[in-house]
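--- STAGE predict ---
source: upstream dedup step, 1 unique chain passed
mode: sequence only
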Amino acid sequence: MELEKFIENFAEQFDETDASEITASTNYHDLEEWSSLVALSVIAMVDEEYDVTLKGDDIRNSKTVEDLFNLVSSRL
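--- STAGE serialize ---
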């Protein structure tokens, strides 16, 4: 699993946020468009793309996109 591809998949869950704004060190909770709906989209994307089940706590406890990537990687 590659970090760059994960960031790309993560960024696709946002309609209005430009993908170039999202990097490994982005604190996604601070993004203007971040919402519970986007969180559900991220959970669904991770399940579909990586066959890893995330819970709401996983999303809340991770700060950056890289934190989430590392969590998903650890469950593969």
